[in-house]
Amino acid sequence: MKAINVGLLGIGTVGGGTYAVLTRNQEEITRRAGRPIRITAVADRNVERARELVNTVVGADVKVTDDAFSLVKDPSIDIVVELIGGYTTALDLVMMAIDNGKHVVTANKALLAVHGNEIFAAAQKKGVMVAFEAAVAGGIPIIKALREGLSANRIQWLAGIINGTTNFILSEMRDKGHGFTAVLHEAQRLGYAEADPTFDIEGIDAAHKVTLMAAIAFGIPVQFDRAHVEGITKLDAVDIKYAEQLGYRIKLLGIAKRKVAGVELRVHPTLIPSKRLIANVEGAMNAVLVWGDAVGATLYYGKGAGAEPTASAVIADLVDVTRLATADPQNRVPHLAFQPDQLSDLPILPMDEVETACYLRMRALDKPGVLAEVTRILADLNISIDAMIQKEPAEGEDQTDVVLLTHLAREKYINAAIHKIEALDCIHGKVVRIRMEALNG
Predict the structure, then answer these.
(1) 126, 274, 329, 425: which sits with the fewest CB atoms below 10 Å from its CB?
(2) Which pTM was predicted?
(3) Per residue in 84-93, pLDDT tens?
């Protein structure tokens, strides 16, 4: 049977891993796909390095070029694999590939989170597939699980540790008691964090990923611009310590929940009960917890990045596309799991309308009546307290830390309470607020 010819855009870490795994496991992959899958062309700005990589395979017949646009127009290419990243050139190349009738496999979560709706619409019109398993959680097959494995379920919510850099930093802060800046520098030294880690530590990368998962889970358009995004840069090691004392761990979570009035779509540091499996995901590992009405909770765990874990997802998409390349486009799995004309207009809820429990830490004068003033403010806004710790002041000081855990309350009322508490004469500085999730269904 005729081989499927693949054009690879970018042969960096993931591209190199894809080429290596596809070559190493070629026989096994061919048996699964029903025909050979061959990378026959590579486009990369560093042509010499690209040639060195492809020439490590004896007898490889691969065209190497620095002209990515010529590759996507090449009539001999069946599938284009986009691994260059970014929003601009990558968008032009993907749209051109679709316009030329080529299927696309991509690991570019940023591109799909921002431009996914127009990309999927163009692919639908042209009768080609856009596959993106590698865009979320590296080698964990979470897209396939949401799109196919859980298709009998009404998915109620999902929550994921979907950025390895931030999870490594939080794990190190908890284990060693170091501050954020020191641990970030260590993560950069070890290669877990980029020289410019903004997308990771500010929660943007996780927001790209949870946006895609929410679209598939609930059958809604991709709406990255509606996501609430907070990173970990303001987290203090003392809050990680207090969370431990209260039986919680702090993780950066991407969260999507289906509510009657709309969908919650948010990324922020979160206290999770330490007895939950997902709370014990450490280092650079990823995990996604999904709750469906029929199956209950399912947890997906593994490496969220790296050359070969991500390559595993890229090649799984290549196998899927190869199997379905000759199928009637109407009978393929839809890009966002639901038929394009059946997507819901369920709105993304503004953060003010989201209900969560909260951890509140404040620096208070150590004198009678302080707690009464704070609890009165909370009570006036119908916010009830679940637990509290008050530390003894250090010798010679007249201030101490007070930590409160609240029951569920609407965000706008929590914000109002924080504003009023900070205005009290007995409270010094800002109130630290970290949201909490029970993740128990």
Answers:
(1) 425
(2) 0.95
(3) 999 999 999 9
